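Archive entry: two folds, one per protein. Generate the first.
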Amino acid sequence: MKKTVLKKYAALIARMGVNIQKGQDVFIHAQPDQPEFIYILTEECYKAGAANVFVEFSFEPLTKLHLKYRRESDLSKVMPWELEKLKFRAEKLPCMIYILSEDPDGLKGADQEKLSRASQKRYPVIKPFRDAMENRYQWCIAAVPGEKWAKKLFPELRTSAAVEKLWEAILDASRALGEPIENWKAHNSFISDRCSKLNSMGIAALHITSSNGTDIKIGFNEKARFCGGSEPTVSGVCFNANIPSEETYVTPDRSKTCGKVVSTMPLSYRGQLINDFWIRFEKGKAVEWDAKTNKELLDEMIGMDEGSAYLGECALVPYNSPISLSGLLYYNTLFDENASCHLAVGEGYSNCIDGYDKMEKADLKKIGVNESMIHVDFMFGTEDLKIEAECFDSKKVLIFNNGNWAF
């Protein structure tokens, strides 16, 4: 990929993604697939005003090695140096950039139960720092191609050609061709208008149906609001958390979901794919589910903690979104969720509650914002999807028809 194009993409992530403020620190977390791009991104962060840029690499084969040889008691510990890093982040509120490139099957064969137990034991130590940062810092998730990810999408091509083709697909889906920053200003404006339209309706619930068996009703608190595109921190700094992003999303009331939802795309979870699955909810909680592939991993996901069996997000994406029209299945949730309406089990977004910045965690929990150590999106959009809004004033409004916006 041309260096001039990559520099524009890096500038988009630094200036529109996390929107670095002069003197802020930046952490970049990446896999070691595109070191040249990480170099370019680091320079663009400095050009945008960063004081310090720290790059952290992870590597899935090493993760598998740790899971194989380390004792569970050691995996479960939060080391003193980790605590110091968490304290630093909670106090300094650096920008966090996550660059994805991992193999969709990269943790196949790993001991997922061991990983779950270790994560559960670490979570109570990490949670206070995560809560302290929530809605107060800028973060962005974007992607670059890895060789194994590229070959998963384009197995007929030699590796170098597959990587180049995935670069093209990522940049196109991310609106990073031409003038990326101008593209995103216009895109953010469009999504903002869509959110305003939805929020003006006073939506109490969404009834979602499709011919594949999805028939579910999702309810909301009166303070719930649809968000999407650029969002502000509590201090008013706007950023784009996901590049790409086509969704308008809202936080359900954790007790007000009833019915069955059927997935329509594979879910990449912890380096493995869960495929052909469905979940049934009663009074907000997942009570029954099944999957043709990796059902035991779906069990692990829904059983991670008390909140992982409840919904934390409902996101609307038209079937004719650019990523959907590309015809590509990315095997990566960042992209696939932007080709399809999706739900997420686990943690709810507090910023989707009007007045959230004046509420404590206990207040948010009282009005139905779910708490969990995970937040995992899965896709349910179809070509014949129908969504009817039931409003607090008793009106019913058709929101989606035949998979797309009905207004």
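Generate the second and append.
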Amino acid sequence: MVSEINVLLIGHMTVDLVAEGRMLGGTVSYAAPTYAAFDHRVGILTSAASDEPLLEHLRAYGEVAARPSKHSLTYENVYSEGGRQQFVRATACPITFDDVPNEWKSARYVHLGPLAGEICPLEMARGFPKATIMLTLQGMLRRWGADGLVKFRPWLDEEALRRVSIVVYSEEDVSQFTQLTEELRRKCKHVVVTNGRKGGAYYHAGEAILYDSLPVEPLDLTGAGDVFAASLLGSLPTVGKDFEKATRLAGRLAAYSVTRAGLDSAPTKAEIARELRNLAED
């Protein structure tokens, strides 16, 4: 039995293969504790192996509805002198709008966080006509073959992009498709392009508004983009739906995230309150 929520996260949780074994990852995994820190009632729609123990870590931050699968989406990063290569070692089931529990179809905020093209953004956007919908783009820009090596693929669904409210991605995500930002600026209401410690840019109504990060000593960059995106969407009710202010707040909270590792990278309530005060004084 599920209850009503106000933020719905949709996408695969991932199993990341690391030297220590199996680690929970994926956009939904880093975003869920971030939304919880903003006191949202969170629903997480995912797909994973029926006996996946890592799913239990997510239940501390919201309700979980998981479509049973033979495997969980599994990634492995392999490092060499030539740099990093990412491999898909197993995939989970696709997620469709029919998988959304009825009690969650009235969510005010919907975060589409695909990691391996497992959702159809257009189908999902059509299913939530009254919601503020954010798409974090990275998982739509991946393809792989029999060897599992992840490569770039261009993706541009114009109708889907017109229907979502916010699109978020990093400069690294589109390094092989640099013209995408110009395309998205014409088609999307709100576009945010992140650039790590350099901050990034928020595009709206033909205008580019730059935002800053904070000077910190990074420990682990994993999940920073997901924390940024969830902080942006999660803060909108708090900042009166001022997208520029939400973007600036998200940039600062993402900076805190890289000083910690794992799900601990989510902002704390104290950090959120501090940066809200700082924004008010700017």
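Annotation attached to the second fold: The chain has a mean pLDDT of 93. The longest helix spans residues 243-257.
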